[in-house]
Write a structure and sequence with these properties.
The chain is of the alpha+beta class. Helices cover 33% and strands 20% of the residues. The strands form 2 sheets. The chain has a 5-stranded mixed beta barrel with strand order 1-2-3-5-4. β1 and β2 form a beta hairpin. α3 packs antiparallel against α4, α4 runs parallel beside α6 and α5 crosses α6. The longest helix is centred in the C-terminal third of the chain and has 19 residues. It is elongated, with a radius of gyration of 26 Å.
Length: 277
């Protein structure tokens, strides 16, 4: 800003002070993160959505990431577990990604079709249900543990059911699995008789056999028992001997129904999952 002077014969003897506003400083952030999605942007850049352990879901631009000799390499592939450095400027939605270091890659797991579909579900669900810039260490740990289990075992039924169940639980959307939403009858008592429960997509609630209505999903006694076990034990301590794949698939179907009800749209990757059934 240039100071304005009144016109005067002595103006030549005056000193004019020029003040230049300094640019707004750009805070540098360093964080552990998981890449959720990555899209081409312009001729050479990438638009990246990532889950920061300290800042939650963030979107940013990685300049030159699509160039052959990019400094980012394969660090921006989906579900890559990385350490990331980025800048943000006030009133700007997108951050500027400066540097990434790869901690763990999931590229090999994506090459297996079944595992790749499960991993796609993990990234899409996390991208969709988590709000911007709200840190959630629990969701971060859940996503990483589930992806690592799929990669390590090559099996997806149990990890995917565990992930979907706990995503619903952490979101505060889990219906009561112990009583019928209509009559209040205890669902747990039916397990001894091997009677199933029934899930309503519209109400996101569980019903007993007497209160069921057409079109409800069936949750077998084995699936109900599986949900209770998954809610009390870590994923890496469970196996298919404890929870059968068929029961795990039932849990996944119901929990993805709950998620889709909350986000009010169909998950794109779920179509691929249903093609595997």
């Amino acid at each position: 800003m240039v100071a304005l002077l009144r016109e005067s014969p002595s103006w030549r003897n005056c000193t004019v002070t020029l003040t230049v506003d300094a640019p707004t400083p750009m805070p540098v952030h360093e964080s552990e993160a998981i890449v959720l999605q990555s899209y081409p942007l312009g001729e050479a850049d990438r638009l990246v959505s990532f889950l920061s352990r300290t800042m939650g879901r963030v979107r940013g631009v990685a300049g030159g990431a699509r160039r052959t000799k990019s400094r980012f390499g394969s660090t921006l592939e989906r579900l890559s577990h990385i350490r990331i450095w980025f800048f943000e400027r006030e009133n700007r939605e997108l951050v500027r990604i400066n540097q990434c270091e790869l901690i763990e890659s999931f590229l090999d797991a994506f090459r297996d079709y079944d595992s790749g579909v499960a991993l796609a579900i993990l990234s899409e669900v996390t991208e969709t249900v988590l709000p911007d810039r709200e840190a959630s260490d629990a969701n971060f740990r859940l996503l990483l543990l589930t992806a690592q289990t799929v990669k390590r075992t090559g099996k997806s039924e149990l990890p995917l059911a565990y992930f979907a169940l706990w995503t619903v639980k952490l979101g505060g959307w889990l219906p009561s699995l112990d009583v019928c939403a209509h009559c209040g009858k205890g669902i747990a008592s039916d397990l001894s008789k091997s009677e199933p429960a029934y899930f309503s997509r519209n109400a996101s609630a569980i019903f007993c056999t007497k209160c069921r209505k057409p079109g409800m999903r069936t949750l077998s006694a084995a699936a109900l028992a599986a949900t209770r076990r998954m809610l009390t034990e870590r994923l890496d301590r469970l196996d298919e001997k404890a929870i059968q794949p068929a029961a795990a698939r039932e849990v996944t179907d119901v929990m993805l129904d709950v998620i889709e009800h909350q986000i009010d749209r169909k998950l794109k990757a779920r179509e691929l999952l249903e093609s595997l059934a």
